[in-house]
Amino acid sequence: MDNAAGKKLGPVQHEAAPLRNKIIMSLRRAVETGVLEPGTRLVEKDLCQQLNVSRTSLREALRQLQAEGLLTDFPNRGLAVVQISAEDAENIYRIRGVLEAMIVEQFVENAPDREVEELRRHSEVLKDAYRSGVAEEIVATKRDFYDRICSGARNPIAFDLINKLTLLTSPLRRRSVVRPERQSQSIAEIEAIVDAISRRDAAAARAAAQTHVANSAQSALHTAAPAADGDRRPAARKVRTTGAA
Known about the structure:
Elements: H1 19-33, H2 44-51, H3 55-67, E1 71-74, E2 78-81, H4 86-110, H5 113-132, H6 135-152, H7 156-168, H8 170-177, H9 180-198, H10 202-222
Antiparallel strand pairs: 1-2
Helix pairs in contact: 1-3, 4-6, 4-7, 4-10, 5-6, 5-9, 6-7, 6-8, 8-10, 9-10
């Protein structure tokens, strides 16, 4: 089970790459892994100490994350990690269904055989991560898997969009991926995607990707708690994706 209680952010290494980007990456990972949960108020003094960065550099990173929609500004409270509603989560999964179907289709069209074989090998790593039942390992390995697909699809913009969308549903994903029934289902879905890609069957790959996202949505929304804003609508409605099997 995922257990981020009591964890703190680690210091950021001061290297040649822009410090702001390193801070942004660290904060994104903190949201992704549950170190920073939705609704968590961000105290600049504490973050500067934990990350070992200046307040100026931190504020630059926070402004970027706020612009991306990951943080929200509450009057008289300051910045906090955004907390999305069940309806927003459903919309995110519907967008992902279209986007991920598109990139696997592009991967089939554009990736050379070498990259197809590399993806197949990495899919075994991903399946092992699912079998481990460790949410952080599953999420990180899945991110690498889609990085390879977007790279082979020659579509880095899609990878950036997928990362932003999945960050917003991080709490739902962490609860979903540790469900044993979802783990075994995901392994079969990843196998279907990679098999279709290996056969250069763009239509089958697209359909397999849509099925994977639709089932991910069903599992994630099933675990959703009522939204903090008082939304009491059922969270486990069936999510439709264009052309999903």
